[in-house]
Design a protein that fits this description.
- The chain has about 300 residues and is mostly helical.
- It folds into 2 domains: about 120 residues, no CATH class; about 170 residues, no CATH class.
- Helix content is about 50%, strand content about 5%.
- Strands 1-2-3 form a 3-stranded antiparallel sheet.
- Strand 2 and strand 3 form a beta hairpin.
- The model has no long low-confidence stretch (mean pLDDT about 95).
Length: about 300
């Protein structure tokens, strides 16, 4: 039952179990079988349903219930004896009037009382070496949806025509912006006459003698640390904003919407860049205070 998103979340329950632990005080709010409160971990994972019968502790029991005076038993199975020892040890340090403390995995086997999205993500994901182009995609004051699209494009994971025909040979795979050739990432950004016109207008005076419309040359420029900070930020942001708006136009045309002219697209992207620089100026970050002036100087030459 529940929404699609809720069902997806429920699939991560096994992963979530490893992230939570309880420090017992009174034991009144902690499940004996299902919460991770003992040195042995979640007891239901160790004994299975059979443990309920062997220990004589109900499946819905709280730790507080199990700690009530009961005769300590000896079992033939070693793990049951270890659970009995855990119950005995915990009973000695019980604090009746105190609340149990929930803790969340921090780093490795360390737990803290505060939950951190960052450390949880780092605990569940696979780590890989940082790629050289990462700072050209994820940088301060970027727009997340632009960065995400750029990340997909760099991995060549956008649903361009050359990739679509691998899934469905009957699909139209020509570039809908120029209709001259098969649509690929490198064609769309910026070999296509439509997109190259937009890119040249926006970036030619910013890059000057380094101007290029070649995908691989441009992505190399995005992480060139020898470029002055403000120029590099503008290049990154204009590049990402241009990718985003061209991709939107491409999708709109594929769905039969009225085409947008290159002049209109240039004005739209130019306005997007100006708005972003204005919001950065409002934060009083002096490193980017001359951003608007620099951008205006490149536009006045267009």
């Amino acid at each position: 039952m529940g929404s699609w998103m809720w069902k997806k979340l429920l699939k991560y329950r096994d992963c979530a179990k490893t992230m939570h632990k309880v420090e017992i005080k009174s034991g009144s709010s902690t499940s004996f079988w299902f919460d991770n409160w003992s040195q042995l971990g979640r007891l239901i994972d160790i004994t299975g349903p059979r443990g309920v019968i062997d220990l004589g502790i109900p499946l819905d029991a709280m730790v507080e219930t199990a700690l009530h005076p009961r005769r300590r038993r000896k079992h033939r199975v070693d793990v049951l004896n270890r659970i009995e020892a855990e119950i005995h040890t915990t009973r000695q340090r019980i604090r009746i009037n105190e609340k149990d403390i929930s803790m969340w995995r921090f780093v490795g086997d360390k737990f803290k009382t505060t939950f951190s999205t960052k450390f949880t993500w780092n605990n569940i994901r696979g780590t890989h070496p940082t790629v050289v182009w990462s700072k050209g995609v994820w940088f301060s004051y970027s727009t997340p949806k632009y960065s995400f699209l750029t990340w997909l494009a760099i991995h060549n994971k956008l649903a361009t025509g050359d990739r679509i025909k691998k899934w469905n040979t009957g699909q139209h795979v020509h570039c809908v912006l120029c209709t001259n050739t098969e649509e690929t990432r490198d064609h769309l950004f910026f070999s296509c006459p439509y997109s190259s016109t937009i890119w040249e207008n926006l970036a030619h005076h910013l890059l000057q003698t380094n101007y290029s419309s070649n995908w691989h040359q441009l992505t190399a420029m995005l992480h060139n640390t020898s470029t002055p900070r403000l120029h590099l930020f503008l290049l990154r942001y204009v590049f990402q904003a241009t990718l985003y708006h061209i991709w939107r136009e491409r999708n709109a045309r594929r769905h039969g919407e009225i085409p947008t002219t290159t002049i209109r697209q240039i004005k739209l992207i130019d306005g997007t860049v100006r708005n972003r620089l204005s919001t950065i100026t409002a934060t009083s970050n002096h490193r980017y205070k001359d951003g608007l002036q620099l951008w205006f100087s490149t536009r006045s030459s267009s």
